[in-house]
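Regression test attached.
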Amino acid sequence: MRLAWLPVTAGAIVAAVGAAGLIRGAMAQAPAAASSTSAAGPIAVTNPYVWAPVPPSRTAAAYFTVYNTTGRDDRLLDVQTGAGTSAVLHLTQSNGSMVPIPNGVVVHARSRLVLSVGKGHVMIEGVIGTLKPGQTVDLELDFQNAGPINVVAPVLPVGTTPGSR
Amino acid sequence: MRRVLFVLIAAVLALVGCSSSGSPKPKGSALIVAPQVGKYAGAGLVPAQPRPSFTLSDTAGKSFAFGTVTAKHPTFLYFGYTHCPDVCPATMADIRLALSKVPASIVSRTYVVFVSTDVKRDTGAVIKQWLGNFSVSSKATWVGLRGTKAQIDAAQAAAHIPLATDDGETHSAQTLLYGPDDYARVTFLTSDNEDQAMAHDLPIVAGGNG
């Protein structure tokens, strides 16, 4: 019985903390993640940002660029965030439809993966509390070889990119 | 705690899911788009497309005959859904920004029509609140429309854009712009900072010289 309640308790903690605006990535995060960019190491994640949901929608989109500086392919397996109840990677297919990528996506050796409007995003559903420009969202990108990489993404008004407007 | 959180997230992921996959099978004829035709910053439409006629419900539940109500008015027409996290709100934001750069005399004659492709979740109240984020204090007339799937399909076919699939989540990202002569000669593709192009083209179209 105690085990059965654990997820509920955890959910309540996530909701409470998220609603209080204290932590926007209730997943375990590096406490000193002051930079919004993780450029160290073989996998570099740059230019992360999240578009604020437009009420009453509680869906947000996260974008970033991944550079694989190594000589071997890696795979972005999953993206996690405590900002919403789910985070799912979507990529646009050759036929133009944007679909979930449940098994992740390969980032080839010495290549990059760019998530941008029309190409792909991480769809954050069930956003907890309010998410407004000026806030940040913690994202954990899980790679097959490189392991987890944490980035802090600024929340921007819909339609804008870092440095635009 | 971390393990518990992972379990929780995994469970939610399994239950919620997101948009379903599947290839769109458009039945309507796609517009012929010729990027950067002539004087437009947006993508030119060749041949020009007539303003479509379809009747849907506005957010108050009243009948709205697009072809007759918006006739002779500069009109942006877009099909999307409010749970869309990126291109739909980005397009509305671009239109709002574009309108802020255009003379008020043109803006006050302009319609912005958003047709929801999500016939299940987008109620009139939802569309009204969502669209209100963009239409607030705008001098243009913003209209949110909804209908049955058959009605929405018919409206998209009338506008010659591919029909939305996956409960409306896979949809065309085009914004059509009709002029006072009731033809569209320019369209804006996947909205990625299209506001400057829209602001450039709206006065041309509104001037009747489209």
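Expected vs. actual: identical. The helical segments of chain B are 2-16, 66-69, 87-99, 104-107, 124-135, 149-158, 195-206.
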